[in-house]
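In the previous chapter we treated chains in isolation. Here, by contrast, the input contains two separate entities that must be folded as one system, with a combined length of 880 residues.
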Amino acid sequence: MDPMEAIKATFFQECDELLGDLEEGLLTLETGGGDSETVNAVFRAVHSVKGGAGAFGLEPLVRFAHVFETTMDMVRSGALAPELHVIQVLLRAADHLADHVAAAKAGGTPVGGEDAIVAELEALTAGAGSAPAAAPAPIPTFEATPLPSVPDEPDFGFSPMMISLDPDPQPEPEPDTGADWLVRFTPKDVMYRNANDALPLMRELARLGPLSVECNIRTVPLLDALDPLGAYLTWTVTLTAPDVARERIVDVFEFVDGDCVFSVEQVEAEPAPAPMILPEPEILAPVASKPVAPATPQVAAPTPPASAETPPANEARGAEAAAPATIRVDLDRVDRLIDLVGELVINQAMLAQRVMESGVARSSNIALGLDDLEQLTREIQDSVMAIRAQPVKSVFQRMPRLAREVAAMTGKRVRLVTEGEGTEVDKTVIERLAEPLTHMLRNAIDHGLESPEERRAAGKPEEGVIKLAAMHRSGRIVIEISDDGRGINRERVRDIAVKRGLIEADAALSDEEIDNLIFAPGFSTAATISDVSGRGVGMDVVKRSIQALGGRITIVSRPGLGSTFTMSLPLTLAVLDGMVVTVGEQTLVVPITAIIESLQPKPGDIQALGPDGFVLSVRGAYVPLIDVAQAMSWGETASTGPGVTLLVESGIGGLAALRVDAIQGQRQVVIKSLELNYQQVDGIAAATILGDGRVALILDVDAIISLRKRSTPPSPPQFAIAS
Amino acid sequence: MSVTQTASSSAAQRELVAFRMGAQEYCVDIRSVLEIRGWAPATHLPSSPSYVRGVINLRGTVLPIIDLGARLGLQVSAPSARHVIIVARIDRKTVGLLVEAVSDILTVAEDVIQPTPDIACETVRAFVKGIIAIDGEMISLITLDGLLPDEIAQEAA
C-alpha cells in the first residue's frame, strides 16, 4: 500500500474510535451525567477529526467539523449551556460528522442535509453569542485548581443558570496585576512519539504575552547512557501576561496533556523568580533556533545552562504506565495463529489417542505428561481465541443513532438503555451481529413501542424504554432486546398467520407457538409497510442469520408490558459444539444448536408416508424422518432399522428427525472450510478433523431438510404439524 | 528408473513428474506439484462425481482427492497402501491426485513434446496436452486445469 494510504487508513480507524467517544460523551451529557472532562473529550474528538481531515485535504469534512467545533467550543467555554435541546442538535451533528467520515472513507462526496444541521449549529452559536453579551466569557466562577491534570473547574456550566449567573465583566478575579505566570514543562518521550513538539507550544505561549524561556539540560545523560528516543529536557517559561487567565495557559497544553508534566503557577513579577529568568529575556529565541526533531530532543539543547532546579524526571517516567498498551495486528496473522493452534489441539488429541492405544498405563509418566499437554493446549487455544474477541460495544455503539432516527421517523419517544457493553465475543460474530440487531431494534421501536398518546392512555410514561443487554452465559453470549411496549398482539398474529396459510384456522396453538409465528417466512404484523421495518421479511431473516451464526433466538412477550427477544450465540465461529454420530462407515458431526433431543424410537413409532417417505411419532406429533445415510447417498439402510434419531429444528422453522446409526458423543470441533480447496457440497456445512486424524463432515441440517423436501411431494405446513 | 535427460541444446527445459495409471504413463509439470504422499483412507463426500474419492486431512487442511484414472475415463482405482497421492496446486486450490505410483522425474526440452494424436476421445483431449517418447515408451503430458468438478456448471443446474 502507498504509505499515505496506510496513514489515511489509520486515520479512519482513529476516526471511528473518536466518533464513538464523541457519541458516548454526548449521550452521557444528554442523560445529565458527565463533567467538564466529558465536554473536553467531546471537543477534542471533533477537533482531532478536523485536524486529521485537514492533513488529508478532506475539505467538506473539515468545513463541517469546523462549524461543529465552534459550537462545541462555546459549550466548553460555558457560553452555551449543555441543555437537552443543545445536546440533541450536537448529537445530530455527530451523526452527520460520522456520515462525512464515511463518505470521505468511501471517497465520495458527502451526504445531504448538511445545510439544515449547519443552520441549527449556527443558530445555537448565534443564540449563545447574544446571551453572554452581558456576561463576557470566560465565565468567572471557576477557581484555579491546583492539579495541572484537571484543567477545568469541576462544576463546569452544567446548570443553564451559568450563562447569566454573574455579569461581572472582570474575567479573571484571581490574578493580581503585576504577577507573572511560571510554567514548568517536562515532556515525556511519549509526547515526541505522538509527533508533538515543544516549539509550537512555546509559540502558542508567546502569543499570550512576552515570555522568557529557559531550558534545563542538566538531566541530559552522557552520550553513552543516552537513549536517542528519550526525553530529558525541562523548560521553564516565565510569561508576563498578568491578565491572561490560567485556563488559557493550560489550554495550550491540551493536546499534550498526559504526555508531559507541566505546572502553571503565579509568581510575583518582582525578583523572586529572578534566577529563573535569563539576564536578557530572549523571547523564544533559544527555542526557536534549535533544530527540534521529535525523535532527538536532546540534540536540540543549545539553551544556556540555567540554575533551575532539577525537574522530576523520574516522576514523569513513573506516570507513563497508566494507559494499557495495545498494538494493531493484521487480522490475517491472528487467523493464521488460530489455525495453527487448531492444528495443535487436533495433534495433541491424536497423540493422546495413539499413546492410549499403545497400551500405556493411565498412571504412567507419559500419560500424566500428556494430560499436562492437553491442559496447556486448551489454555493456549482459549488465549488465542481471546485475541479475536472484542467487546460488543462496537455494535452497541451504532444503536443509539439508529434508535434516534427510527424514533424520529415513527414519531415515538425512545430511550435506549445498554448493559454489558464490555462483554467480549469473536470479531466475526460481532460483525455479523450488527444486521440482525439493527433489524430487531427497528422492529422493537416500530412495532413494539406504542405512540406517545397510546402510552399515555395506557398509563405508561410517554418515553418508551428499549433495553439492549449482553452477557456471558454457560460458554455462550446472550443478547437481549427488550421493550416496554404493547407486547405481541396474539389475536392479530394468529389472524395473519391463518390468512397467509401458515396455520390452519382451527389450529390450537399455545401462546408461545403464536409468538414464534412472527419468525415464519413472509410474516409481517405491521398494518402498513413502513420504511422503517421493511417489507415483512424482518424476523425470519433475523432468525436465519442468527442460526447461520450457530445461535438461537427466542421471544417472551407479555401483552401490555412488552416483549423480550433473547439471542444466544457461540463465542467464536472457529469452533463448534457438535454431536459426533456414526452413519454407515462414516463419522459425521451434527451441530448441537440444531438438536433439540435424541430419541430411541420403537418400531411402531415410525410410519411410512407415501412411496418413500417416513414420519416419526414424537409424543403424538408426526415429524418427517430423514435417513442421513440415504440423504448422503451412502447406503440403502431402511429407515425402520435399528438406530437413533435426533430431533432437530431447521432454520426454516420446522422440526425433523434425523436417523443415524449411533451417537458417539458430544465434542468441540474446529471448523475447516471445504470451499477452500474444493467447493460447496449440498447438505454439508463444513468439515473438521477428529482425534483419529480423519476428516469428518459437519452436517448442514437446514440443507438436509430442504434437500429432502425437494424430492418429496409438498409436505403439510410445518405449524399444522407442530399442533 | 533413473532421472532421464533428453538433451536438446537450445530449447527450453521442462521438469515433469511421471506417474503410472493402469498400464499407461502420464506426467504433469513439476511446478504444480507440492508434495507426494502415501494413500490414507478418505472421507466420502455426498453428491459428488464418482472420480472425487473424498477428503483427507493434510496437516490440518481438508484436501479433496481426485481419482485421476477415473477422471480421465480409465478405470476407478481400488486404492491400496501402494497408491500415492500427488498433492498439486490447481488455480488457488490444493488438491490430491490419486495415482498408482510415481515413476520418474523427467527433464525434457520443450520441442520433444509432440501434439496429441487426433484419435483420442474428448475427455482425453481435454487433459492430455502432448505426448513424449522416451526410450520407446510413450508418456502423456496432462494439464490439471479443469480437473475439479465444474462448480459454475453445477450451480447453474
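Residues 148 and 263 of chain A are 6 Å apart (CA to CA). Residues 3-30 of chain A form the longest helix (28 residues). Compare these points with the single-chain example from earlier in the chapter.
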